[in-house]
Amino acid sequence: MYRIDARQSPDNHVLAAGGVVWRRSKSGELEVLLEHRKRYNDWSIPKGKIDPGESLVMAAIREIVEETGFHVRLGKFLKRVQYPLSGNREKVVFYWSAEVIGGKFRANSEVDRIAWLSIPEAEEKIQYESDRKVLQRFLKTDVAWHPVILVRHGRAGECSPGAADVLRPLDAVGRQQAVTLAEAASAYGVTELYTADRVRCEQTMLPTSQLLNLPLKVERTLSEEAALIHPDDTVDFWLEMCERAARGKIPMVCSQGGVIPTLLEGMETTGGIALDSRVCKCKKGGMWVIFVDDHGIAKAADYLPSPLAVR
User: Fold this and answer.
1) pTM: predicted TM-score of the whole model, two decimal places
2) Domain-ending residue, one of 139, 161, 188
3) Do 211 and 287 belong to one domain?
4) Which residues are CB-neighbours of 292 under 8 A, at least 6 positions away?
5) In terms of DSSP H, where are the helices of 84-223?
6) Distance CA 285, CA 175 (A)
7) Mean pLDDT of 218-246
8) Which residues form the Nudix hydrolase domain (predicted)?
9) How far is 266 from 11, CA to CA, in rounded Å?
């Protein structure tokens, strides 16, 4: 499990994001993209600085598109790389696996050409040891893994006097979290949406439903009350989501804080990775990205505690 967060970074950290962009050749071989930067006359992995008001996930997507012209879908988080800059500053770069889903390269002010290479060829051509280590991490990651996303609802406000807790809505922060979660859902290529039958959960997923033009399905087993009474039904639903991911769907599920540890720990019952309750807690608006194999068995997990802008 990897926790991906840069919100508490010191002011002297220059934050950046990017990814190992990959595709399958016509013969089925795995190829990765290296870009040649005119300014530095070097070959490197696509990356760039985070803009004000931008999250790590969206920075990675934007930089890859701007530098290479390719649209990508994010996969497993790979590595955090840090190295010194002048003026007592540190560059900190967050890298993902990024599968090409469209687009075309056009030379631009930063990148004048690209190369599609095998991993050994890329390791030989690349000029920075830190980039080489990112490629080596990518090589250890199975690109055939399938994501399924679990979200805790955004921050909620107070109930109206006499109103039931199930009707409690998101507050202003929660509504902003919902908007940025929609952007993250787009980055991972979400295709299905499910929510607990709580107003704050439904409101958390609404911007994603609108952005991706996907129906929002209410699932009663996802509430804390349902999970307390029939925990097996709740876990069974989550394992069904993992199986759907293995069949090519990318589900995104929103639930409550008391349910999320139950769901994540339940993956161990099918032989998946073990995540105990001490690390399974999820902040409001936080997101778990679980990666399953072709049988729906959980193999890896990334945790993003906040969808909001880094700075």
Assistant:
1) 0.94
2) 139
3) yes
4) 145, 146, 148, 242, 245, 246, 272, 298, 299
5) 119-125, 129-139, 172-188, 199-212
6) 10
7) 97
8) 12-139
9) 40
